[in-house]
Specification:
72% helix; mainly alpha; 81 residues
Length: 81
């Protein structure tokens, strides 16, 4: 297989938006609401376009929400994540 890069180069802004969207979706799926809200606020503050990328997936994330077990959430908090 041969990789053919895009002639104009990578769109790093779009890549960062996708990464931020995925961080928010993961938080909505697994973390307490306050943590998810903090992560969302930080992502939107960094790039408001993240909200546009997030909206089509938000309902799915809420419907499929399964919080981390309490012991895991405490460990994550100790890591500062």
């Amino acid at each position: 297989m041969h990789h053919l890069p895009e002639p104009a180069g990578r769109d790093t802004r779009a890549r960062h938006r996708i990464e931020a969207r995925n961080r928010v979706l993961t938080a909505v799926l697994r973390r307490p609401p306050a943590v998810a809200a903090r992560i969302l606020a930080g992502a939107v503050r960094a790039d408001p376009a993240v909200l546009r990328d997030l909206l089509p997936h938000a309902a799915w994330a809420v419907r499929n929400r399964r919080r981390l077990p309490a012991v895991v959430e405490r460990a994550v908090l100790r890591l500062g994540v």
